[in-house]
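Office hours follow-up: a student asked to see two folded examples consecutively, so here they are.
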Amino acid sequence: MKPRALAVLALAVLLLAVPTAAVAKGVTAATIDGGGPGGLPGGPITLRGGGEPGSSTDLGMLALGTGLYAAAFDPDSGGVVKAAPTDRLGPRYAITWTFPDPVGGTDRKVRQLVWPYAAGGPVSFTPAGQAVLDTTTIGGWYQGFDGLRAQLIELGLPDREPLAPVATATPAPPAPAPASPQPAPATPSTAWPRVAAAVAGLLVLGAGVAVALRRRLGHGPATAP
């Protein structure tokens, strides 16, 4: 299955947790800018159209990739965290989302920060307390899939690889355990009692075996005539 199709499927699952108001009225436009001094080489990038949850338009896919609806309305739906998932973020961009006013007034603007080249996948941050539809954004950090980086490159961002994760040091192998001390060889002054005991034991065992054999063969002690 292609990455775009997977993203659409993931968005359909996400819809189950998004409030009804957000489902009814999604974003209608998005403007991407930033990226450091001078901003984007060709200037800000603007998308317009239908960006409702479930839409496979560029606008809808962009909202999915940045975790906009989850971070704005329902962080508990998955993927949204309170702290940055990595400190290797790279260049920062900003997306200004346009939501229609629920009563027909002035459109609402929601600003979201995006790091497309972050280690481990693109990272976004949606500040809390921004007016949107008939509520305010809950906010949070979100780390998505690499498909967002690819989409932003297609839209005009520089074609760059994501940052590599910080290399973790390989722990040194444990030092070998010290060899157990070998007992010192017995000296003649201490070895002879052990040798004598062993010889005595063998003699007793040999005598017992001899007696048993004599009894089995029927040779009792000799009797006087």
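And the second, which I mentioned at the end of office hours:
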Amino acid sequence: MSQSAHILVVDDDRRIRELLETFLSGNGYRVTVAANAGEARERLRGMVFDLLVLDVMMPGEMGTSFAAGLRADKIATPVLMLSALAESADRIKGLSSGSDDYLVKPFEPEELLLRIRNLLRRTAVATPAIKQAQFGSCLFDMEKGELWRGRDAVRLTGREKEMLRLLVANAGRTVSRQALRSEGQDEQARAVDVQINRLRQKIERDPANPSLLQTVRGEGYTLFVESTE
């Protein structure tokens, strides 16, 4: 898929979150941030991530406990753990909790990038990307952002392409309104609802009674996909 990898950064230090978000975004990644394990779980309920960058020392639930919980829930998203704890025993504990790599603070930004690239390369082999998705009479090309309804091409705006890609990537799962907002914009939930209604006009047989793109009250939206390749 031509989309950049989506990384969830979990760290209780606001300054570090902002630095990592700026640095990783500047290197072509899509970045979402969370201040603690609770916020991270909320993000994971609404989005699919290619990688988690996870701090160990956080108030409430430690990063090691959070990583272990992910693995217990069969969530295989790769985890890069960050920690100021540099002893061998700390590294072993971090890796044993379910993380895939462990990087000691402070670290060189270039080393962080290399480790992220290596983890993404390793997992990309085992996780085939969705190229096309079929739902109802529609076929959506994830890479080109093209939507076809039968033999007719359907025009999509840039935002509609982004939203449809996210919905297809999370097919059958609820995607929150927050996740569907424009990256970097303070878009209101009502604006997302309007855009969803426009998408329904393009993919649903009866937009007033949607069967493909359904509302999950108080949470967000779910797209039901028949097949992918």
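Two things to take away from it. The first strand starts at residue 6 and ends at 10. The chain has eight helices and 13 strands.
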